[in-house]
Amino acid sequence: MSSETTSVTNGVAEALRRVQERITAAASGCGRPPPELVAVSKTKPVELLLEAYEAGQRSFGENYVQEIVAKSPQLPSDIKWHFIGGLQSNKAKVLAGVPNLYMVESVDRQKTATALNKAFAAVGRAEKLKVMVQVNTSGEESKSGCQPGETAQLAKFVDTECDNLELVGLMTIGAFDTSDEPEAFKILATERDAVAEVVERAASTLTLSMGMSADFEAAIRMGSDSVRVGSTIFGAREYPPK
């Protein structure tokens, strides 16, 4: 291990502890239980993930199929892997082959849901794969996600047509917003209400995954059940893998 990696590694556990303290404080301030923390480990070496694991972290998020496939065999089997990146339908089979894949948060169209449903059926697991519908709350072309107003239709498709998938909620990567109540989070909460109506479930049973390193405390105040924090724990993101 290089001296640079060693230096960063020694700080991961402490950075994780500080993030957990901030999550607890934000949740306590609005009378809510702390949300789940997904440590986003994209582009980071296995050594850094292991440091977070040894500090008690169990949920990790990856953006690239090739990374989650490469890292998962090198790390403990009780890790809950969340796939949070854009997913091409032709890679669904490869992703479904990760033994401890826990959730795909980035289902943004019926084609992706169908491919995942078929792929997960082929691996023959007893439990359904948990999925979230990703919503593009900012309207930015650079961000994935279905458009607000289309969320309920996609969610209903997952819920009724994909026997091997379990719809658990909605996810967004909102535009950077320093306000106390970012618009992206308001939109996602509204979309959840629409989804709850069409799938005939209480809105409170649908998880909201929103908030990252720059805005996870605001997300918690606005009702997020899961926050995805990467650079604040592991350091600045490196270049995408080839």
Question: What would you say this structure looks like, in words?
Answer:
Belongs to the pyridoxal phosphate-binding protein YggS/PROSC family. InterPro entries: Ala_racemase_N, PLP-binding_barrel, PyrdxlP_homeostasis. With 242 residues, this protein is an alpha/beta fold. The chain has a single domain, classed as TIM Barrel (Alpha-Beta Barrel), CATH 3.20.20. Helix content is 41%, strand content 17%. The protein has 9 helices and 8 strands. It has helices at 3-29, 46-54, 65-71, 92-96, 110-123, 151-161, 183-199, 216-221, 231-234, and strands spanning 36-40, 59-62, 80-83, 101-107, 129-135, 165-172, 207-209, 226-229. An 8-stranded parallel beta sheet has the order 7-6-5-4-3-2-1-8. Strand 6, helix 7 (183-199) and strand 7 form a beta-alpha-beta unit. Helix 1 packs across helix 2 (46-54) and helix 6 packs across helix 7 (183-199). The longest helix is centred in the first third of the chain and has 27 residues, at 3-29. The protein is globular and about 45 Å long. Residues 1-9 have low confidence and may be disordered.
Characteristic key phrases:
PyrdxlP_homeostasis; 242 residues; TIM Barrel; 9 helices; pyridoxal phosphate
CATH architecture: Alpha-Beta Barrel
Q: What is the CATH topology assignment?
A: TIM Barrel
Number of helices: 9
Order of helices and strands: HEHEHEHEHEHEHEHEH
